[in-house]
């Protein structure tokens, strides 16, 4: 067969680097976007920010004080304009300030020619008193994220025990879980130790008793009953506590926790041989205890959500606006751009590529925020009742409805609404919160699942604690309002809202 050359024309989709960058920036959250931009600003010298993200932060002055940001319209630091506090300054004091000079060695001299050796600045008198105590002024260096192990080890260091007992207690500390419970049985820990150490069960039990005497109360417990019992034993030192109530609480924590969890108060009164008031007081005392004593240590930092969109009421209409605090102001470095424009040699090819990448990035970032604003405004227009009346007025909404309205793909709307937050008069919500499935009503319409969950939460909050509403009764009450919901659906929504079953909601 004779080889030949053929020319064919075809069309196909290709993801250009610019399109790939646009898709990646669109699905990033606000924090991830700023992290990405910081890396790009370091890699590309032709890209710069016209805004200072740390402009409103409090900085540390050279003298160790706090340099707060100056308000708008404040005079410059070079003294060209008088500050707000200089209007009523004493002329004599001002002349003394102007007469100061600097010697060749940099020491500042006053009007009398004497050298000033006070390097502490305006707060020198306060700093001299602070130097008397080394701990003063260093409170911010305290270990706020102290772990449970560090807390227990510090207490162990202050005890008077032998090195062998200290090692056994340290071994048990290493076996503790994050909640403060002993993760392994003593027999298993003893079996894992080398035989030549000759550690018996009594030694481990004594080491456990020492560990359980540490703060927080209840640490080192092997189950919830022992944890609560240890905390009640620590409360026994309080002389104002009713001993009869404490004794009932000790019995509840040690032997009857399953019945207490099941709210079987009738059987508990018969077993404990107590009246209603004493059982109620003992129950309240147990509710004050902490079943996870180790959770107070090593807690992570609070993660704050910064909204991308703010919804305000303007002239009687709800409008979505971009949060200006999260919008980076990027620009191309004009100096480098002019140099590249005048350059004609081929050595600037890499710089030209970086210039093109900078322009692409600026365009893609602007397009990202424009798309977020368009989707947010479309959501606001369809959920106006929510912004006026709350979650009970949420209407059904799916991604396809927003995509068809804006001429976008569903995947694009999904990327826009993921990890993007909207600030409303009822709080800050992820934009996906405004989408919900349809539930039929008796009138032939549809109700949002979000609105049904809000109604369910209101009904449970208004119920009688002595006679809580069952799932069947909740379904009947929603049916009376025209919303047809099965009992299984009520149970699913109740679990999603973390509402306990009817037996556990019954109050004593």
Give a concise summary.
Helix content is 46%, strand content 8%. The protein is an alpha+beta fold.
What do you see in this structure?
With 508 residues, this protein is α+β, with helices and mostly antiparallel strands. Among the domains are: 148-212, no CATH class; 224-296, no CATH class; 438-508, Orthogonal Bundle (Arc Repressor Mutant, subunit A). It contains 22 helices and 12 strands. The strands form 5 sheets. The chain has a 4-stranded mixed beta sheet with strand order 7-6-9-10. It has a two-stranded antiparallel ribbon with strand order 1-8. It has a two-stranded antiparallel sheet with strand order 2-3. Helix 5 runs antiparallel to helix 6, helix 6 (163-174) packs across helix 8 and helix 10 (243-255) packs across helix 13 (276-287). The longest helix is centred in the C-terminal third of the chain and has 34 residues, at 349-382. It is extended and about 95 Å long. The relative contact order is 0.08.
Number of distinct helices: 22
Structural class by secondary-structure content: alpha+beta
Strand content: 5-15%
Give the N-terminus to C-terminus distance in angstroms.
Answer: 94 Å
Major sheet:
4 strands, mixed
Radius of gyration: 34 Å
**What's the rounded overall pLDDT mean?**
79
- The beta-strand count equals 12
Helix content: 40-55%
User: What would you call the shape?
Assistant: extended
């Amino acid at each position: 067969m004779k080889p030949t050359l053929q020319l064919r024309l075809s069309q196909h989709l290709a993801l250009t680097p610019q399109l790939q960058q646009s898709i990646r920036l669109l699905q990033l959250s606000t924090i991830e976007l700023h992290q990405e931009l910081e890396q790009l600003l370091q890699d590309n010298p032709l890209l710069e920010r016209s805004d200072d993200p740390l402009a409103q932060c409090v900085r540390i002055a050279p003298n160790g004080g706090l340099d707060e940001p100056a308000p708008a319209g404040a005079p410059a630091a070079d003294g060209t304009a008088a500050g707000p506090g200089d209007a009523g300054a004493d002329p004599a004091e001002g002349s003394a300030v102007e007469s100061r000079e600097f010697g060749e060695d940099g020491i500042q001299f006053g009007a009398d020619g004497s050298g000033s050796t006070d390097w502490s600045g305006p707060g020198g008198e306060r700093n001299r008193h602070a130097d008397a105590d080394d701990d003063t002024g260093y409170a911010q260096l305290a270990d706020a994220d102290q772990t449970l192990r560090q807390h227990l080890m510090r207490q162990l260091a202050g005890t008077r025990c032998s090195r062998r007992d200290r090692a056994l207690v340290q071994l048990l500390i290493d076996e503790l879980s994050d909640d403060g419970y002993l993760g392994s049985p003593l027999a298993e820990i003893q079996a894992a130790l080398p035989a030549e150490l000759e550690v018996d069960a009594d030694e481990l039990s004594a080491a456990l008793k020492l560990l359980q005497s540490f703060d927080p109360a209840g640490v080192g417990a092997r189950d919830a009953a022992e944890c609560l019992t240890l905390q009640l034993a620590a409360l026994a030192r309080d002389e104002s506590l009713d001993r009869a109530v404490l004794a009932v609480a000790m019995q509840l924590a040690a032997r009857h926790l399953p019945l207490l969890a099941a709210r079987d108060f009738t059987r508990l009164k018969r077993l404990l041989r107590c009246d209603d008031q004493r059982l109620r007081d003992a129950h309240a005392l147990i509710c004050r205890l902490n079943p996870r004593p180790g959770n107070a240590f090593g807690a992570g930092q609070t993660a704050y959500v910064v909204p991308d969109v703010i919804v305000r009421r303007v002239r009687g209409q709800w409008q979505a606006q971009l949060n200006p605090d999260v919008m980076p102001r990027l620009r191309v470095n004009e100096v480098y751009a002019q140099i590249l424009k005048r350059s004609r040699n081929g050595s600037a090819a890499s710089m030209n590529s970086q210039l093109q990448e900078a322009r692409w990035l600026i365009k893609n970032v602007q397009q990202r925020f424009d798309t977020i604003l368009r989707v947010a405004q479309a959501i606001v227009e369809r959920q106006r009742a929510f912004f006026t009346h709350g979650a009970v007025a949420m209407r059904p909404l799916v991604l396809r409805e927003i995509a068809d309205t804006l001429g976008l793909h569903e995947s694009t709307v999904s990327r826009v609404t993921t990890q993007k937050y909207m600030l409303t008069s009822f709080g800050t919500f992820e934009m996906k919160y405004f989408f919900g499935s349809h539930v039929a009503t008796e009138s032939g319409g549809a109700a949002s699942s979000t609105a049904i969950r809000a109604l369910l939460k209101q009904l449970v909050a208004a119920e009688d604690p002595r006679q809580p509403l069952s799932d069947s009764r909740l379904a009947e009450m929603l049916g009376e309002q025209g919303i047809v919901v099965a009992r299984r659906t009520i149970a699913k929504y109740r679990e999603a809202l973390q509402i306990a079953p009817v037996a556990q909601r019954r109050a004593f």
